[in-house]
Specification:
alpha/beta, 2 domains, 4-stranded antiparallel beta sheet, Aspartate Aminotransferase, domain 1, 15 helices, Aspartate Aminotransferase, domain 2
Length: 384
């Protein structure tokens, strides 16, 4: 008799991601997919040609473990120009296989068994599994219901001697909110004389609207000295499938980060790194992103404003939240499925971004889509 293999799950309560679930439902029902958090249009032809050219020139073997020096130099230059902070490309910048890998490696670097990590919910779905897999204890704080701002009194009450790290995401997925100067000042005062580190997820740093400023943790010496700053070229250059991102941190933190990085990935795609390095030399290739997406945000909001949905503020990212409480009293998961089946539009419910059961009448749509797709989807949404 054959004995079946028995394996204890390290993530027993984690199932298929909501993104995969909704995308499958969209495909099964031939629905317009506004649930996917990535563009449906191609990246720059120039960037593709650059990748091809480096492939043809023979740059097809392993890159250096921290990333090509060409790309690290450009990352350093861009951050210095934007935020006034110099990261040494030799010792303080590492190119990663996307931001999610950078996040996991940063968690692995910081967390020891029993450490507490504060996150704000709704939150990107990779945070809690990464914390748990590294033996940490997630401490979730719900953002303020009215405007998804940070409830700083609750943060103060949740900090203990076991608090190792606080995770920030600005611009924020899924809400589109951003940190302001009051948030930064409050944080600096709150953690003064405390041995608390930070992971600052800034993948949407170039997608910010209405003359607002992205307040990178790189800008503030008090924070930067204890922070892993993480970003992604996938969001910036419409190349999410290339899985290329980076992490910046002080040398003593980055040294430990690289010890783990080398055994998870070792090296990231060589021709892609070299192409992005070349593409970054033209600053308009990333500085123009906010205007590009502002047009799409404004188009979608104009199309929806006279519908029965309530538009919530969107200050950054390429996500728009819609409140459907005037349309239905269904929970957000059921309503999202209902949209697919009734009108053929896929969205993402907000409740799966939370670790505890929440009653929500809010869904997220992605407006990183062709204009004709947004127009078609909006017509269907206005029919409700």
């Amino acid at each position: 008799m054959t004995t079946k293999s028995k394996l204890n799950s390290k993530l027993p309560h984690i199932g298929t991601s909501i993104f995969a679930v909704m995308s499958k439902l969209a495909n099964d029902n031939n629905a317009i997919n506004l649930s996917q958090g990535f563009p449906d249009f191609n990246c720059s032809g120039e960037l593709i040609e650059l990748v091809n050219s480096f492939m043809k020139k023979g740059f097809n073997q392993y890159a250096p473990m921290p990333g090509t020096i060409e790309l690290r130099n450009e990352i350093s230059r861009v951050i210095k120009n934007l935020y006034g902070k110099h990261y040494n490309p030799e010792t303080e910048i590492t190119v990663t296989a996307g931001a999610t890998q950078a996040l996991f490696t940063a968690f692995s670097t910081l967390i020891e068994k029993g450490d507490e990590v504060i996150i704000f919910e709704p939150a990107y779905d990779s945070y809690i599994p990464a914390i748990k897999l590294n033996g940490g204890i997630p401490v979730s704080i719900e953002l303020n219901e009215k405007d998804f701002s940070i409830p700083w009194d609750k943060v103060e009450s949740k900090i203990t001697d076991k608090t190792k790290c606080i995770v920030f995401n600005s611009p924020h997925n899924p809400t589109g909110t951003i940190l302001n100067q009051d948030d930064i000042s409050t944080l600096i005062e709150l953690v003064k004389n405390k041995n608390i580190h930070f992971i600052s997820d800034e993948v949407y740093e170039h997608i910010i609207f209405d003359d607002k400023e992205h307040l990178s943790f790189s800008k503030y010496d008090e924070l930067a000295k204890k922070t892993f700053v993480i970003s992604s070229f996938g969001k910036t250059f419409h190349t999410t499938g290339w899985k290329t991102g980076y992490c910046c941190a002080p040398e003593e933190l980055m040294r430990e980060f690289r010890k783990i990085h080398q055994f998870i990935v070792f090296a990231v795609n060589t021709p892609v790194q070299l192409a992005i390095a070349e593409f970054l030399k033209n600053d308009s290739n990333y500085l123009g992103l906010k205007d590009f997406y502002k047009k799409k945000r404004d188009l979608f909001r104009d199309l929806i404003k006279d519908s029965n949905f309530k538009l919530l503020d969107c200050n950054g990212t390429y996500f728009q939240l819609l409140d459907y409480s005037n349309i239905s009293d269904m929970n957000d998961m059921d309503f999202s499925k209902h949209l697919i089946e009734k009108i053929g539009v896929a969205v993402i419910p907000i409740s799966p971004f939370c670790s505890t059961e929440v009653k929500s009448t809010i869904v997220r749509v992605c407006f990183a889509k062709k204009d004709e797709v947004l127009i078609n989807a909006s017509q269907k949404l206005r029919s409700l």
